[in-house]
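Quiz preparation item.
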């Protein structure tokens, strides 16, 4: 379509047939672009007639109710229409009943499209004539033109430049003449020549003098020193920071020979050594392997006995534990039997077995202790047979 034209009664009645009653979604070419965007972004459907047909307002519920229940005039009867010019669109307000009106928007390709339903009366700035509304919208599109006079007289340019800056100083010419007679190398003579050409105002010269004289402001001239920056406050001699205490991380590890990585689980051999170092360092005996086992063999009870102190050739004992404690020193004069050494080795083996059993038992929650014993012992036998 070339341009907007008055809305026809056929267009109004076609849309009324879809609106009353509303049983299915409206065709997209009959709905305004703004209302289609509202349906899309809010996911509106005809199930909610009020949200689907009308924009939010206080009278929306009553207007939609009248649209769905009121009888409408026959198709051959003309309907009163008022047009409202808008900065972006032209609206057509059609009175359907004495209390109800439909709002249409003009689209350059699809013509008049349904936009809203509202109650009467018509908007106050609307026009009953379509041509009057077009005229009002066209006048608002352009700014009023200013009349320009081309009649010029000789000497207008000179009078314009001569009058430039005269409102600031009354004795402009006398002042500029007296200053021009002074030394041209001075700063005042320079500004006097500048003001004679451009009409420099007195307030601007005062502003320049403030910039060049005031010590608190930076100077634009490189020959004039700028104020020194204030030094930052330093900590006084009395504010002494506490001395840092550096503690090596090795002091918190019983097993200093192996590096602990929290992101990787230790190897079985490394885990056994760490558990052994933990049990010996804490000084607390490990609990029995099986909780319900009330009997213990002689080998287990022997592990609870204190280990006799080893003699040394030195007459004095060192107050600090030697780094060679992991070695067993046997004096030639003492008669330590081989059975005692074997018993200590057996104790270490039992502690490792207990530790492995506790780790293995953590993943078996719904089983009995007797079943765990049999499965654990069978696994140990299979491992020994594979050696």
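Solution:
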């Amino acid at each position: 379509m070339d341009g907007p034209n008055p809305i026809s009664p056929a267009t109004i009645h076609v849309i009324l047939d879809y609106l009353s009653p509303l049983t299915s979604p409206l065709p997209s070419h009959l709905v305004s672009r703004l209302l289609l965007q509202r349906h899309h972004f809010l996911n509106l459907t005809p199930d909610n007639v009020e949200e689907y047909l009308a924009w939010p307002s206080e009278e929306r519920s009553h207007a939609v109710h009248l649209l769905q229940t009121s009888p409408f005039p026959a198709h051959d009867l003309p309907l009163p229409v008022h047009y409202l010019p808008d900065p972006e669109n032209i609206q057509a307000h059609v009175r359907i009943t004495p209390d109800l009106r439909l709002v249409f928007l003009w689209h350059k390709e699809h013509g008049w499209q349904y936009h809203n339903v509202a109650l009467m009366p018509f908007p106050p700035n609307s026009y009953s004539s379509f041509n009057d509304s077009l005229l009002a919208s066209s006048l608002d599109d352009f700014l009023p033109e200013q009349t320009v006079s081309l009649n010029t007289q000789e000497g207008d340019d000179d009078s314009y430049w001569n009058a430039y800056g005269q409102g600031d100083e009354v004795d402009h010419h006398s002042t500029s003449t007296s200053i021009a007679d002074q030394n041209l190398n001075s700063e005042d003579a320079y500004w006097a020549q500048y003001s004679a050409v451009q009409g420099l105002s007195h307030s601007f010269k005062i502003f320049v003098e403030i910039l060049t004289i005031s010590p608190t402001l930076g100077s634009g001239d490189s020959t004039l020193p700028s104020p020194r920056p204030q030094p930052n406050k330093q900590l006084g001699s009395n504010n002494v920071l506490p001395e840092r205490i550096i503690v090596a991380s090795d002091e918190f590890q019983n097993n200093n020979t192996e590096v602990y990585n929290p992101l990787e689980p230790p190897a079985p051999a490394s885990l056994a050594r760490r558990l052994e170092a933990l049990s010996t360092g804490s000084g607390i005996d490990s609990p029995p392997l099986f909780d319900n086992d009330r009997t213990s063999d002689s080998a287990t009870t022997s592990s609870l006995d204190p280990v006799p102190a080893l003699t040394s050739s030195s007459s004095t004992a060192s107050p600090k534990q030697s780094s060679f404690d992991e070695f067993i020193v046997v004096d030639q004069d003492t008669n330590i039997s081989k059975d005692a050494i074997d018993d200590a080795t057996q104790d270490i083996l039992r502690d490792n077995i207990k530790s492995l059993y506790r780790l293995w038992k953590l993943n078996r929650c719904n089983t009995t202790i007797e079943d765990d014993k049999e499965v654990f012992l069978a696994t140990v036998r299979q491992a020994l047979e594979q050696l």
